[in-house]
Write a structure and sequence with these properties.
2 copies of one chain form a homodimer.
Chain A lengths: L8 H17 L6 H8 L3 H7 L3 H25 L4 H17 L6 H7 L6 H27 L9 H21 L5 H13 L3
The first copy, chain A, binds a DNA duplex (18 and 18 nucleotides) through helix 3.
Chain lengths: 195, 195
DNA sequence: GTCTATAAGATGATAGAC
DNA sequence: GTCTATCATCTTATAGAC
């Protein structure tokens, strides 16, 4: 008796395409038909991997959060100082925006949150909380080392940095300008440098 | 012979409802059916006022930009100093977010810009350009008066302030937190104050 | 200005064959 | 795992009566 052993290749490809489509067009503007066309299979086959669109959304967000955690772990593991960590963090966003003005997945979903299946909205919330926590640690370490300067709590500063990066993506995209994002990211990081 | 004299009441109500729905749910997540239900009329009647959804979008954005210009004009006309002007500007965004975590209309549309009819996307771009220009003037005036301090160009600072407010809305909404927006807005304005 | 009626197309989803 | 076939529903839009 053979045991079903899905290699998950199609499943991953579905998630890859879904992620790109959501970051470009949004959750409400991509369809199973879009995925099927790109994959060269039928929509019924997508439903085999993800019974509902909400299931797909949750699976995508879980993978995304895990990947993002890995990226943050990789940054923190480096022997760099906290200022470099912040720069590498911002570079993650810049890399995304450079790819055809794509937004952060959770930035896009946050805008659409009122229309999302509840479990998907919950994943978005967790993304922001985790990211804010990580950034707060880096900022606090930087302050302790005398490399980073800011008023108020590290948490509030972390949230603000996140807001700047998310907002810079939105504004640069709305203005349809290719380089405004990196300009804002660089300028804001410069403000955090201790004199 | 009587001349048709549309009072525009229904037309305006359509735009009112459409604006609220877009700021809450997005352009791709509201339908003529939603409008018809709230108004107590049929979708065909909406099409009488706006032949296509793109027409509705353009009309909404034109009205919105005009209203926003009027608000900015009202702020600039006050005898306040530039710092107060910035605070009143931020208050416009806070008022919006206080209303059921609504986003800035153009912040929401900016996220969806890849899926919007071209004329609608053009209006979004104009909104950001106009707003950036107005903010840059206020910032420059504040700097001349020694009340506002910043590095770089007034344009870049204006863009950054806009990004902070848009991003703060997105992050606060994604975290489903009611007061994070005002916290970030207040903190960022404090940074602009000259010592 | 609003209605009924209608249309064509998209969408999320399921049943059952292969 | 993928297919065909089918479904109910939603969506934008038009024609023509009132």
């Amino acid at each position: 008796m053979t045991i079903a052993k899905p290699n998950g290749r199609t499943r991953d490809r579905i998630l890859d395409i879904a992620q790109r489509l959501i970051q470009s067009r949004g959750y409400n503007a991509f369809s199973f038909s879009d995925l099927a066309k790109e994959l060269g299979i039928r929509t019924a086959s997508i439903h085999y991997h993800f019974p509902t669109k909400a299931d797909l959304g949750v699976a995508l967000l879980r993978r995304y959060r895990q990947n993002f955690r890995d990226e943050l772990g990789g940054i923190a593991a480096r022997a760099d100082n906290p200022l470099r960590h912040l720069a590498r963090f911002a570079a993650l966003f810049e890399r995304t925006f450079s790819a055809d003005n794509q937004l952060c997945l959770c930035g896009m979903l946050s805008a659409e949150v009122a229309t999302l299946p509840k479990p998907v909205a919950g994943e978005v919330e967790r993304f922001f909380e985790e990211t804010e926590r990580w950034l707060a640690q880096v900022l606090a370490a930087g302050k302790s080392a005398g490399l980073v300067a800011f008023d108020g709590t590290a948490r509030a500063q972390a949230r603000m940095l996140l807001a700047v990066l998310e907002g810079a993506m939105v504004v640069a995209r709305g203005m349809r300008h290719g380089t405004h994002f990196q300009g804002m990211a660089r300028d804001y990081l410069a403000k955090l440098k201790a004199a």
